[in-house]
Amino acid sequence: MKLRFVIPLLVLAMSSSMAAELPAASRAEIDTLLNRLGSSGCHFNRNGNWYNSIEAKAHLTSKLNYLVDKKKVDGTEQFIALAASTSSVSGKDYLVRCGTAQPVTSNAWLRSELQSVRSKQTPAK
Q1: Checking CA distances to 5, which of 54, 87, 91, 93 falls within 20 to 30 Å?
Q2: CA separation for the pair 48, 92 (Å, rounded)
Q3: What is the per-residue pLDDT across 51-75, written as a single tens digit (0 to 9) for each?
Q4: Cα(27)–Cα(93) distance, rounded to whole angstroms?
């Protein structure tokens, strides 16, 4: 078994014992990220195949629901790391391609969107 497959499995196993219920604020952030992805019109690559944004949202929602059911995720960043960045089957990074731009990892795309979501929630001083 290659090391790149073992490490995510170890992280998942270690985090499963530490995870609690998904807080409402994290669930809201994740839902916002999934909705942004679903309505983005971007394409999503997993395991070498491109899918539309609606299919991408459905896939990641399924992975989220699994992790929530098993109490293996307790925050937005953890969801991105465990479910939305790499394939649990192949270990390959997921990619997002919007328009004619070069593809970026879904990790980078989702973290950028999360930063945008959080910056809009911070009240102006």
Answers
A1: 54
A2: 9
A3: 999 999 999 999 999 999 999 999 9
A4: 23
42/24 Cα distance (integer angstroms): 27
pLDDT of residue 17: 44
CA atoms lying within 13 Å on the CB side of residue 24: 0
33 to 17, 84, 89, 118: CA distances (angstroms): 25, 11, 23, 11
User: What CA–CA distance (Å, rounded) separates 22 from 74?
Assistant: 4
Nearest Cα residue to 37 out of 80, 71, 77: 80
Q: What is the pLDDT confidence band of residue 21, given thresholds at 50, 70 and 90? A: confident
The domain segmentation of the chain, as residue ranges, is: 23-116
**Sheet with 104-105, side-by-side order of all strands:** 49-52, 43-46, 95-97, 104-105
